[in-house]
Amino acid sequence: MPAVSIDHYENFPVASLLCPPALRPAVAAIYHFARTADDLADEGNASSEQRLADLRAYRAELHASATGSPPPPGARWQQRVFAALGPQIRQHQLPLPLLEALLDAFEQDLVKTRYEDREELLDYCRRSANPVGRLLLHLYRVKDETALRRSDAICSSLQLINFWQDMSRDCPNGRIYAPRADLRCHGVDEAALLNCQDSQAARALLAELCAWAEQLMLQGAPLVHQLPGRAGWELRLVVQGGLRILERIRAMDFATLTQRPALGAQDLPPMAWRALRMKPALPQPSGAAP
Prior knowledge:
The protein is mainly alpha-helical. It folds into two domains: 18-111, no CATH class; 115-277, Orthogonal Bundle (Farnesyl Diphosphate Synthase). It has helices at residues 24-42, 48-67, 78-92, 96-111, 118-128, 130-139, 145-165, 167-170, 180-186, 190-194, 200-220, 229-251, 268-276. The longest helix has 23 residues, at 229-251. InterPro entries: HSQ_synthase_HpnC, Isoprenoid_synthase_dom_sf, Squ/phyt_synthse, Trans_IPPS_bact-type, Trans_IPPS_HH.
């Protein structure tokens, strides 16, 4: 599952101590694939056209590595990314559409900077975040539909939390992930967000969006009890990390247009304690109200 507060590609775990050693090469290879694609889409001073061309070339190298074919002419990322990823794709039969979905999301970020409603934003999350969880569930050989739905809920929640955490970074760069329908509901103008103008209306907007992200996280949280051993414990920390960031946002009264909350070493003890205390939901008695 994705992890929070990783230095660059925040919604992804590096092969942590909780990851089984046999899976660490695959997790690390997927991470470097995603991180490099993120760099191509977001780092440096290249034009959008050049970034799209680079991502298309990157996709071509992905296809070659997945089949064991020679790298295409002019391959730039073979040694850095695909020499490690290709064998993992073939060994673990990683679903290529999930890796491609991540590239689709990076490409979308270069051409789309507004979302009309929550469903449209969740559709973006289905490509930008949910494939990460599904790839890791694939490595753990967890395939049932309930687990996949819960994974999607956690991953989408983490992506949304990252959006609301990063308002002070994204908005000045012209990206507004808060859906237009929510902006209209709270009377918040796009221009005010682009200029990071804090207001009670903007904070009320963020409060509602954070509540939405929290609801998704709680929907997916029972997955921690479906995953075996280390995977379940790692996921507990992931869930608690996301919830902890939401706590940080609430503590600053949702003022993420002017400052960015982050987790630090002082957050680890409460996260670990809460992870330890996560219990399966008790079954409701027959006839109980939902």
